[in-house]
Design goal:
The complex is a heterodimer of chains A (139) and B (613).
Chain A: E1 8-13, H1 17-26, E2 35-40, H2 48-56, E3 61-66, H3 77-94, E4 102-106, H4 112-129
Parallel strand pairs in A: 1-2, 1-3, 3-4
Helix pairs in contact in A: 1-4, 2-3
Chain B: E1 8-13, H1 25-32, E2 38-44, H2 50-62, E3 67-72, H3 75-88, E4 96-100, H4 102-106, H5 113-132, E5 142-143, E6 148-151, H6 155-166, E7 171-174, E8 189-190, E9 195-196, H7 197-210, E10 214-217, E11 220-228, E12 231-238, E13 241-247, E14 249-252, E15 256-258, E16 273-275, H8 276-284, E17 293-297, H9 314-332, H10 352-362, E18 383-388, H11 396-407, E19 411-414, E20 422-426, E21 429-436, E22 441-445, E23 449-452, E24 456-458, H12 462-469, E25 496-498, H13 508-528, E26 530-531, E27 538-540, H14 550-554, E28 560-562, E29 568-570, H15 580-584, E30 590-592, H16 597-608
Parallel strand pairs in B: 1-2, 1-3, 3-4, 6-7, 6-14, 7-10, 14-25, 16-23, 17-18, 17-23, 18-19
Antiparallel strand pairs in B: 5-26, 8-9, 11-12, 12-13, 15-24, 20-21, 21-22, 27-30, 28-29
Helix pairs in contact in B: 1-5, 2-3, 5-16, 6-7, 6-13, 9-11
Classes of the chains: A alpha/beta (139), B alpha/beta (613).
């Protein structure tokens, strides 16, 4: 178990991306088991604090996945998410955490394939970046 | 037991082998028992089956559980079931939480059992962490607009509209084309008794048109839909003229189109190579050419050739047409006088000569296999061959038709995907070069007509509708129901239902059944008159609120206003619990009922916790 395997927290909105993840499952699309999904009603629910805390607690990457713009179950929640995630990325930069460790994706309920591909791609990218420097910085 | 004492019960589902085949469920169960506040953990073969539900119900009482965690499939389909059981056992349904270890674990990590098991443990740790922080909630009631919209006026949509209308609710039936009937309009006859499709359709259309509760919109589309179960604002566009409307429920029945086999089996090279539906059209218009032999090729573009799936109905449609030709060939070919045309459903006299010859040869042995290559024809003038991978004449009636077709000397010739029949057009003559699996020989035939049985496919605009209503389509573009077995006409989103061929190939019987089923589901909120949206709303702590108004700005539903004290206040019935206000409040004065900061952070913490051993 000594070999490092990235830990990823994925915040998925209930209406699109969580459903997209379900579809990937129903379609038996295989992807790496690194991510732990936390279901939220809307990506607009996410506070920058949640993401910073996740890095502090040892996440090597954080994925935020929601409905496509114009397609939000709550009309404009994902537009709020865009603003917040952009701001959070700047904060990560200041803290010396590579921005690429935070990713925002739009994955609809019908895009199981995109969910699976996103998982694969994100895990690959995080593997290239190596373990997060923030891990263990705060106990 | 103090009020604060948490007593969590965890139920882990094997889902047959769907979970247990790829995750070590016993190990996960043992692990869960070590988690804080878990007083009971068990595993079930199917937690959603009767004994699983009973085990939840009884354990709540026996172990005085005040929090329940089920680790199984997805909350999107099964949460209401388990919440209902909790409630039956006297536990507020908001003290239940769901952990998805199937769709998002066992099914997507099928080749790494060890890692999938670790992930399942992590997910359960997260679920238990969340469960510890759950609080009971009360639900508000919201009124329902007592009307439905049905999108699509084929047999499924019309059946749904009629059924809703007959139960006393107004229905808007929206059809894209200039007339009702959908796909069936193209057909000549429907199978089993080969009744004239037009007259079957007419009887439904007449009932729709005569129903005072149904308002018909032809040449129309629903171009916008906003809202939630019981309260949808929709826009119906009729040739550019828009009508804004309110409905409580939406039924989707947008139908299908036939796959066009471009580049397959000589399609397009001869007017006598047609698809099954084009063939139906020719029969209907009585425009079939005179012929002495005809070949059907099954599974064209289906089952891996292009589309992955089996279209279900084509075997039966080809058998129906073969039987129609065999029994009725003069009429079908338009050789009869005009008067007979209207009686296409009445079988003509079977060709006496052919019939006798058949009986003479086969005697009473019945079903002598291997004789199909003999030259006896379906009729004295018509040779009928069905090239197939395997005939799927499912159900009692279809199996009988299949047997009858064999009796009528319809030749059923098998091919394999490795050895497809080759079609060529030589000087206008059709040639099929095929490998006969039974005889193990290369053979040739020159039919006068080739009919390609192609699958039903998703409509081109299915994706747009899926985006508009926020409901999913699957890999093949068909709409995807909430659960293939348990909720076949629901979407995961309450208030929207699906029926007919827009959710996959179906015959008329099935489309009608589904239409009626969708109607019965759709009528539940209409009949009840109210819906109880989940208690997901936001609450403002007025002691902390500074009255800055940021939350009012970000709320997509105008559900927050300032009260007399200048503090933010949430209108519970209008709040949908998205949490945008909670995430934006600079004072942290807004609390989200079921997705609180504490709960989400506890989940994140549990997800990232290092586990020893």
């Amino acid at each position: 178990m000594s070999e490092w395997d990235p830990k990823i927290v994925a915040f998925c909105c209930n209406w699109c991306s969580y459903a997209g993840a379900d579809l990937a499952g129903v379609s038996r699309m295989q992807y790496p088991p690194n991510a732990r999904v936390i279901r939220v009603m809307c990506t607009g629910r996410l506070e920058p604090e949640f993401i910073l805390r996740a890095f502090e607690l040892g996440a090597d990457g954080v994925l935020v996945a929601g409905c496509h713009i114009g397609d939000c179950h709550y009309v404009s929640g994902n537009e709020r998410a865009v603003e917040k995630i952009a701001m959070t990325a700047e904060l990560l930069d200041v803290l010396g955490i590579d921005k690429r460790r935070l990713r925002l994706e739009w994955i609809s309920a019908s895009e199981g394939r995109i969910f699976a591909d996103t998982m694969k791609d994100f895990v690959d990218k995080i593997k290239e970046l190596g373990p997060s420097p923030a891990k263990g910085a705060v106990k | 037991m103090s009020d604060d004492e948490k007593r969590i019960g965890v139920f882990i589902c094997h889902c047959g082998s769907n979970i247990a085949g790829f995750v070590d469920v016993p190990a996960v169960t043992e692990y869960v028992k070590t988690l804080p506040d878990v007083v009971f953990a068990t595993r079930n073969l199917y937690t959603c089956a009767d004994d699983g539900l009973t085990s939840i119900r009884e354990s709540i009482k026996e172990h005085k559980l005040n929090r329940v965690v089920v680790a199984a499939c997805t909350p999107r389909t099964h949460a209401p079931l388990f919440q209902g059981v909790c409630q039956e056992a006297g536990l507020n349904k908001y003290l239940f939480t769901f952990v998805n270890i199937r769709d998002q674990c066992s099914w997507v990590h099928m080749k790494e059992k060890e890692k999938a098991t670790e992930k399942a443990k992590d997910l359960l740790r997260m679920g238990v962490a969340r469960a510890r922080l759950l609080q009971p909630q009360e639900e508000a009631r919201v009124g329902v607009t007592s009307a439905a919209v049905v999108i699509g006026g084929g047999v499924a949509g019309m059946s749904a509209a009629l059924s809703i209308a007959d139960q006393g609710f107004p229905v808007r039936l929206v059809e894209k084309e200039s007339e009702l009937g959908g796909f069936v309009r193209q057909l000549s006859s429907i199978y089993q008794d080969r009744k004239d499709a037009g007259s079957v359709l007419k009887s439904i259309i007449d009932r729709v048109k005569g129903n005072p509760n149904i308002e018909l919109f032809l040449n129309s589309e629903v171009t916008a839909a906003e809202g939630f179960v019981g309260n949808y604002d929709i826009v119906i566009d009729t040739k550019g003229k828009e009508r804004k409307d309110k409905v409580g429920v939406i039924v989707l029945a947008t139908g299908t189109k036939e796959y066009i086999p471009k580049g397959l089996y000589g399609y397009g090279q001869s007017p006598n190579i047609v698809t099954l539906t084009e063939f139906e059209g020719l029969v209907k218009a009585r425009k079939l050419p005179k012929m002495s032999s005809i070949a059907f090729i099954q599974c064209v573009g289906a089952r891996g050739q292009d589309k992955t799936y089996c279209s279900r109905i084509c075997c039966n449609v080809s058998l129906k047409n073969a039987m129609n030709l065999a029994e009725n060939y003069k009429n079908v070919l338009g050789l009869e006088e005009a008067g007979a045309a209207t009686e296409a459903a009445t079988p003509m006299e079977a060709p006496a000569e052919g019939g006798e010859r058949r009986r003479g040869r086969r005697g009473r042995r019945g079903g002598a296999e291997g004789s199909e290559e003999e030259t006896t024809l379906a009729g004295p003038k018509l040779e009928i061959v069905i090239f197939n991978r395997d005939i799927m004449a499912y159900g009692i009636e279809h199996e009988l038709t299949y047997n009858k077709a064999r009796e009528k000397r319809v030749r059923l010739v098998r091919y394999t995907p490795k050895n497809l029949p080759q079609v060529s057009v030589e000087d206008g003559k059709l040639v099929i070069d095929y490998y006969h699996e039974t005889l193990q020989m290369q053979r040739k035939m020159s039919p006068d007509m080739i009919v390609l049985a192609t699958p039903l496919t998703a409509q081109a605009d299915a994706k747009d509708i899926s985006m508009m209503l926020k409901v999913p389509v699957g890999q093949d573009g068909f709409f995807l129901e909430a659960h293939v077995k348990l909720r076949p006409v629901d979407f995961a989103t309450d208030g929207i239902y699906v029926c007919g061929t827009c959710k996959g190939p179906a015959d008329i019987t099935e489309a009608v059944s589904q239409g009626i089923a969708a109607a019965s589901r759709a009528c539940i909120p209409l009949a009840r008159g109210y819906v109880q949206p989940e208690a997901l709303s936001a609450y403002v702590d007025s002691d902390v609120c500074s009255g800055c108004g940021t939350c009012i700005e970000v709320c997509p539903f105008s559900a927050i206003r300032k009260n007399e004290q200048g503090k933010a206040e949430v209108t519970i019935a209008a709040c949908k619990g998205c949490g945008n206000c909670g995430a934006t409040c600079p004072e942290n004065a807004i609390f989200m009922n079921c997705y609180s900061d504490e709960q989400l952070l506890a989940e994140a913490k549990a997800a990232l916790q290092e586990v020893k051993g």
